[in-house]
Amino acid sequence: MIEERIIPTLPSIAAISREEGQRLYEDMNLGRIFEDKCAEMYYRGKMFGFVHLYNGQEAVSTGVVQAMRPGEDYVCSTYRDHVHALSAGVPAREVMAELFGKATGCSKGRGGSMHLFSAEHNMLGGYAFIGEGIPVALGAAFQSKYRRESMGDASADQVTAAFFGDGTTNNGQFFECLNMAALWKLPILFVVENNKWAIGMAHERATSQPEIYKKASVFGLPGVEVDGMDVLAVRTVAQEAVARARAGEGPTLIECLTYRFRGHSLADPDELRSKTEKEFWLARDPIKRLKAHLIEQQLFEEEELKAIERRIQAEVEEAVQFAQDSPEPDPSELHRFVFAENE
User: Fold this and answer.
1) Residue 208 lies in a domain
2) Which class for 162: exposed (0-12), middle (13-18), buried (19 or more C-beta within 10 A)?
3) Which of 240, 243, 296, 340 has the fewest CB atoms within 10 Å around its CB?
4) Does 330 map to a domain?
5) Which domain holds residue 258?
6) Is 280 domain-assigned?
7) Can you tell me the mean pLDDT for 14-18?
8) How many domains, the chain?
9) Taking the mean position of all CA atoms in its chain, how far away is CA 72?
10) 178 to each of 81, 126, 156, 167, 181, how far by Cα in Å?
């Protein structure tokens, strides 16, 4: 059971500066408050289609992406992609406008909740089919290595992070891409967000080896298990993996043990998971844990952190207003962005 696989935070991980702590706390709160607002807008009929929220898993997105160079390195997501986009630097107003299907959205209103994309921020997209984004991330990592080693571009030292869930690790793309990444020593992080459930299938019932990080050994690359409810633990593991990748030492498989606090999507009544299981994980809320740590280490007063929360809330409210005020895509541009356009 995942409950028995929680990794205790090492004391050395606690050493962060006030500036670093603030950046992590802001990013995690932006993700949580944004997703809560999405739920509100969805139930008010402002959003349509499938909407999969990230509540509970913020330590993974923040811990990994903030250990990289947001906006410079590459991020490839899943259909639970809002928070990955925010961590990568895509403005909240552009993400919200996309969820409203507006022309000002980061995908010009064409992508919606499951297909967020931003070339400007090296956000390589959200993908509705599981495992679909892993080969895309592999390609991004390959071009970084090729440009640097074959074309002599010293600036091409970008690292790519591919996020995916536990259910994806039973699919062929996962194994094929791990193999290729290890063979070519590509600068990529394979980040498994093991939230215990693949839609309605319990992880332990779907795989012959529930400890996903151990699958890395088959391909001769490092596999690491980390408490995905502890942003400092995730960040430390990610920093090490990023350093390896940027130094040309190849990929790392990171299994983050985490949990989603809401159902699979906003259309899911969430009746399959037990109350006991939910309470166990809710008690490990990653944002509350970071907040307690920042206060305990005397990096922040509680009122300072509350002020950050209020500021983020105002940013999200402004994003909603921006989305509501933005124009719908013009019907005359129905076929635009289907094919590449000449400059």
Assistant:
1) yes
2) buried
3) 340
4) no
5) 17-323
6) yes
7) 83
8) 1
9) 16
10) 22, 20, 21, 16, 5
- The three-class DSSP label of residue 261 is coil
Q: Quick check: 7 pLDDT over 70?
A: no
| Residue 343 included in any domain | no
The label of the residue with tokens 């950050």 reads: 308
The structure's pTM equals: 0.95
CATH of the domain at 229: 3.40.50.970
**Strands 197-198 and 201-202, bridge-based pairing:** antiparallel
Residue 175 has pLDDT above 60, yes or no: yes
Structure tokens at 13: 């991980």
| Tokens 């991004």 -> residue | 140
Write out the E strands in the chain: 74-76, 160-165, 188-194, 197-198, 201-202, 223-227, 252-257
Give 138 or 46, the one with higher predicted confidence: 138
* Distances 18 to 10, 142, 230 between C-alpha atoms, Å: 19, 36, 17
Mean pLDDT of all residues in the chain? Answer: 94
